[in-house]
Amino acid sequence: MLYQIALILAMITMSTRHVEAAIIQPHILASHEFSLENRYPIASVNQVFKDNILLAIAYATNVKINPQNVKWTKLEQPAKYSLSLLPGQTFAFHSDVLPQYTGKVNKTTNSDFSISEGYKSDGYLPGDGVCHLASLMYWVASDARLKTLAPTRHNFAPIPQVPQQYGTAIYDTGLKGNYTSEVQNLYITNNKNKTVTFDFIYNGNDLTIEAVE
Length: 213
Known about the structure:
By secondary structure, the protein is α+β, with helices and mostly antiparallel strands. About 30% of the residues lie in helices and about 20% in strands. It contains five helices and seven strands. Strand 6 (about 195-200) and strand 7 form a beta hairpin. The protein is globular and about 45 Å long.
């Protein structure tokens, strides 16, 4: 009798653990990746793209950055960063937004991709490479069936390892109400009834973005 009771209790405990595991197990809505060593054919330019992508992720996830002395070696170490959107919240890649998003944006990358914020330039524009990050985010958010808007396609240059339809142009003049900036932005709204978290996982070579609820 005691053996049977003990067996029942053990089965209940195991069942409870399975239920708890199911409850806390995150559900990956979508996941895509690309190599940060394959952003541009010229190595020196690729390095600029890579560093700007990692810096934008750091700013977006509220990592403390000294723009006058960016710790690039630290940023280039494998790491995982997260950005969460509560139900109904909206993310914009930068803060110069279209009129319909005025007062409705809850999170951005917290930067305008300027030299003063520590971004690098390959001689063309400071912040080169952030379009690649936005494009990967757009791809993931779209596959996760979140509400998305990317008004301007990145048709002037391919984004390696990202389907052309998700290429997203990003540009911020730093001037509010500038239409050129507003349409070169990415907007993602969590239209689900659960919190959605974007996990940015860098393994030292590849960057993976997962949308998890």
